[in-house]
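User: Hey, quick favor. My workstation is busy. Could you predict this chain's structure for me?
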Amino acid sequence: MAFPHRPDAPELPDFSLLKRLARDQLIYLLEQLPGKKDLFIEADLMSPLDRIANVSILKQHEVDKLYKMENKPALSSSEQLCFLVRPRIKNMRYIANLVNADKLAGRTRKYKVIFSPQKFYACEMVLEEEGIYGDVSCDEWAFSLLPLDVDLLSMELPEFFRDYFLEGDQRWINTVAQTLQLLSTLYGPFPHCYGIGRCAKMSHELWRKLEEEEDGETKGRRPEIGHVFLLDRDVDFVTALCSQVVYEGLVDDTFRIKCGSVDFGPEVTSSDRSLKVLLNAEDKVFNEIRNEHFSNVFGFLSQKARNLQAQYDRRRGMDIKQMKNFVSQELKGLKQEHRLLSLHIGACESIMKKKTKQDFQELIKTEHALLEGFSIRESTSYIEEHIDRQVSPIESLRLMCLLSITENGESQGPKMPDCLKVPRDMAYVFSGAYVPLSCRIIEQVLERRSWQGLDDVLRLLHCSELAFTGVTKEDKASSESLRLVLVAFLGGCTFSEISALRFLGREKGYRFIFLTTAVTNSARLMEAMSEVKA
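Assistant: No problem, here it is.
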């Protein structure tokens, strides 16, 4: 279900501009170190960098060799070394070891550190402690927004959740504020702003300060985006802890979508090698099934395969001229579609095998019972058995978290497992058991254009003091822009929430744009919790 938009649906802004800006700024920074240089890249930045500036672009700007920053020492013979890193202490130690080893060997080179998206004082302190602060030049690559799809922007900061929500570290708030400032500079002011959560409130306040400092940047500009929502992940942990059942969510849960692409192994490709596949709206097959409940996907793909075969079969009765046209105009497209179809059928089969092995139906039944607040005793027994069998400690922890949060029943969805083929409600993303709370909040606030009448909800969420509305003084918003809604998830958002809001957009005539600190799912959430420093 690609969720075809209504004829009156507003056009999405062109976010390719963000990529061009990031690329130009990186090239400018690399050129600050004239001549040949080797580039050391932190592992986490390799995929985002590849989406912005590939190897050939880097080579054009005199980057000679590329190194992944790992524990083992790098053997570069270049006279100039450039380091592209996240602002992390361990990276500073890595650079310091390399520079100090050069000093011991009596070797002089030029060193440049490029922090992305910003540098932190703590990092400079480490460079000073290590005695190399004067030997390196430091710069910032303010690359904090990567367009993963036409409607999805990611800050690619998976550590945001752990740093802020688990360790209380507020250093990324400034990055969020600057990101919102960049968007309002490029796409005009946001007439209506709503937020919920402590992090959302702090980000909003800092963003407003930046707006005041740069007064005039967006003055007189017509807004392209009418509404912006800022949501903290801890307002709705339930959605992020649930197993996903829409296709894109299941692909993420099963294979891990990283930076908009996925590695399909031999079990999917039906060959002896893995394949990296970009998953976005350009993949026509994927775009039609991404938001679909998994129970419908096989039927759709087999129908697609039959249609494709029928198009191939048309060749039989063709004369030479028709065959020539067919080969030049249609064959390439059909082959591409056939390749994508085979991949997604392979992915579905692989998901089915894994889920059958894990007794997925029983797991989903337990989750839905927890969400709806019944059969608690049976659910508790299932979780205890899960722990006894030592199936997966992370999974057991996830189920215990879900039990703990939903003890009084969380469901606000209609009981409709029979309405998955033609969904009538956002609850279809969890088989009818539950509407993602984050999405229900957005729906209700958009209807009211405020938090009015939602006092009980805010009290239950312990957010009475943390919900806010901001309206810009000059409201030149067109009716089209008022149907464009930017939703910023602070601490990560799931593909289930994205699918639910795409559905809501189609039903109510909105188009949603998603901005997230990173795409998340239950496994990533649990891993972040187990990584917290003691």
